[in-house]
Structure formats: C-alpha cells, structure tokens
Design goal:
By secondary structure, the chain is α/β, with parallel strands linked by helices. Helix content is about 40%, strand content about 15%. Helix 7 packs across helix 9 and helix 13 packs antiparallel against helix 14.
C-alpha cells in the first residue's frame, strides 16, 4: 500500500523512478514497521515543490526521523523491528516449561507444523453408526480416540496444535446443529477453508480424516483449501484421504460378520484469494472457515471476500488467537461489514494447547484457534440505523492486534 502511494504521488515528478528507489531504500525500516510512519515519510519526501533529494534534504530527513524516533511511541527502526521479530519470552514458569518441552519434541522428531505426530485407527472409536459423536474437550477426545496413555504434556500439546483445525470445524458444526442453525440434509459435506497456508492447514492432509471419524453419517467430504500462501505447484491438485467404517454384525445372526465401508475425504488446493476463485472450481459450501484471520487488523484485505460471503449467505466461521482479538473481529464483522452474527467470540474447547509467546505482550501466550465467531448474511435493515456513527467511533478505537507478528511467531510444530 505504501509503495503504491509513493508511485502515485511521484508519477508526475521528474526522475520519478529514481526518487521511488531512493525513498524505498532510505525508509525501508519505516515502511515495514508502521504504515502511518511510512506515510509520514512519503508526505515529507513528495510534498509539493520539493526537488529531487540532495545532500541537504537527506540531512534534514535524517534529523526528522531522529526526532520521530525520540517522540513517537509507535516508532520502530531496524533494531526495534528485529527485536519485535525475536521477542524475549517472559512467560509464566508453567507455560515457559511447556513451550520449551514442545520445542524439544519438535526438534527430536523433526516435525513440521502440519505433520500429525500421532493418529490412531478408526476402529478405536466406538459409537452408533448414524449418530454424532459428542466430544466436548481434548481430554474426552483422547479417551474416545485411544490416545497413548504415555503421551506427555508436550506431545499432547503438539497433537492439539495439528488437530485443532479439523476438531474446530467439528465443534462448530456440532454447535450450529445444537443451535438449530445448521442441519445435515445430505451424506455429502463440503467445507471451504480460507487463507490456508502450506505449513498449517495444507500440510498433513491425513488430519482432515478426523472429520469423517467424528461425523459418521458423512459418506463423502470435500475440503477446498484456498489461500495465496499455498505453493503454486499444489494449486489445482487433490489429495484423497479414506477411512474404513466398521459396522457391527446384526443381532441374532451368529455367523454374520462385521462389514466395512470406505468413506473418502477429498482435499483440494487453490493458490488465490477466495473472491478470485474461478467459477466452477468449487461447489456450494456447507461451511466456510477462516482460521486466525486477524480480521480487525486486516479488514481492508478481507473486505472483498467478506462482502462476497455475506451476499451469498454462506455459514461462515472465523477464529482468533485470543479473547481481545476475537471481540474486535466480531465487532468488525458487525460494524464494518454489517454481517449478522450468530455466535460472538466464543471460547473454543479445541484450541491448540501449544503456548506461543506473544510478540506484542512478552509475558503472555497465544493459542491457535482460541476463540471463534460465526456469521451468516447481512443484518436486517431495521438494525442498521445509526450504525455509521458507531462505525466511525469503533474504527478510531480499534487497537491493532499484530496478527502478522503472531503468525510469524508460531513455533514450527
């Protein structure tokens, strides 16, 4: 955005390309640190009547930037930016111990973030074939799935860090069914995942088979993962994950045997933004999910996609790293995009238990998919009166959640 501003303001100036190159080199640390600081520098460099920067102009700019460093709390030069990228960890002792143990397991097992550390067979589950398995916590999940009893706290945290994605979808579907918002009318289920990245949602496709195991009546599951961070060589490809469902023998028939039926999950990848997805590349979703979207911070980037989803009336769930971010995300959906909120900033029982040191608050930890908000369509017109003033007040009060920093700070697991 800053680079576009530079090009627009300098396109009519003599030697525009040289000026852009000079400004980008001179002020790079400002641009990456803070948009407002970057725009300040742009306004100074390209103010009307200023010729191509000379030695005196460079010296004056250096003085202005030095003053800016001393007087503005939001200043972040190169050293400060590096410090933010590698923040000191002042976590409470229990979280610090768990974090260090998780890092040790990851290094020992040479794990990637999307890789499944453990996965038991479907036969370990015992439930009626046509009923939803009511699992409410990770502890309950471990009992139902036969998680190894010798798994330590760090191993369990790493397992939840991978399986939080399918289990969050399971919990959202279960919650919407209980609230009467959603009802399964077909053995075929289609879910779209927005903003997917290779090292989280796209890697380790076998984790999505958990949805088949916990939704036993779904015979065919289609997952469409869409995001600009998916590698180009994966775009358009499909991966099939199968689960064998065992049906018990009928009562009164001593010689009858158990039968198995294979159910399949198809995982598809598309390297693009969701609103740029070509027509026909995906079907009509039963649920659209965006994991850790950082909506309040990145609302401009999300605007075209949310506008499309709101107009189409799909059931949508966005997750957040912490309670504060979840509240701001929900208010952004309601006050900025006029979306109809169905569930607001609810805690997710299937959040990752892996503690990531918060790059903004060094003494806190954030967790993947800690909270979720569900919305569908637009609010009724009668509820929109007087919202313009509220929207302006809200935008002035929004505190940026530093989502990009938190995404970068997640330990490879």
């Amino acid at each position: 955005r800053t680079r576009c501003t530079i090009e627009q303001q300098s396109c009519c100036a003599k030697g525009a390309s040289s000026r852009v190159a000079w400004a980008m080199t001179k002020c790079r640390q400002v641009f990456v640190a803070n948009l407002h600081a970057g725009l300040f520098v742009v306004a100074w460099v390209f103010r009307p009547g200023v010729p191509m920067p000379n030695a005196a102009a460079v010296a004056e700019l250096d003085r202005a930037l030095a003053e800016l460093r001393e007087t503005c709390w939001w200043w972040a030069g190169e050293e400060a930016f590096e410090a933010e990228s590698n923040p000191p960890t002042n976590l409470p002792p229990d979280l610090e111990r768990l974090h260090s143990a998780c890092v040790g397991v990851i290094e020992r097992e040479d794990l990637s973030r999307g890789e499944v550390l453990w996965m038991s067979e479907a036969g370990d589950m015992k439930h009626e074939p046509k009923a939803m398995v009511n699992v409410e916590t990770w502890e309950h999940y471990g009992r139902v799935r036969g998680m190894p009893g010798d798994a330590g706290e760090a191993e369990v945290a790493i397992i939840t860090n991978t399986l939080t994605f399918p289990m969050t979808i399971y919990h959202v579907l279960r919650a919407t069914v209980a609230d009467g918002v959603f009802a399964f009318a077909s053995p075929r289920l289609e879910i779209h995942v927005l903003g997917a990245a290779f090292d989280t949602e796209a890697d380790g496709s076998e984790k999505w088979a958990e949805l088949l195991r916990f939704l036993p009546w779904v015979a065919e599951l289609r997952l469409v993962l869409v995001g600009p961070e998916i590698p180009e060589d994966m775009s358009g490809k499909k991966v099939a994950v199968s689960v064998e469902a065992t049906t018990a023998k009928a009562k009164g028939k001593k010689k009858s045997k158990k039968t198995t039926a294979e159910r399949t999950a198809s995982v598809e990848f598309h390297t693009c933004l969701y609103h740029d997805l070509p027509a026909g590349a995906a079907g009509t979703p039963d649920l659209v999910v965006g994991f850790n979207t950082g909506l309040a911070d990145l609302r401009d980037e999300w605007a075209p996609t949310i506008t499309q989803l709101r107009a189409q009336g799909h059931l949508v769930c966005f997750t957040s790293y912490n309670a504060t971010e979840a509240v701001f995300d929900a208010r952004t959906l309601e006050d900025v995009f006029d979306a109809r909120i169905l569930s607001r900033a609810r805690p997710n029982p299937f959040k990752s238990q892996f503690p990531n040191p918060d790059p903004v608050y060094g003494d806190r930890a954030f967790h993947v998919n800690a909270f979720y908000t569900i919305f569908r369509g637009a609010r009724e017109s009668t509820k929109l009166r007087g919202k313009k003033k509220k929207k302006k007040r809200f935008l002035r009060r929004v505190v940026r959640s530093s989502v990009k920093q938190r995404k970068g700070a997640q330990t490879t697991a």
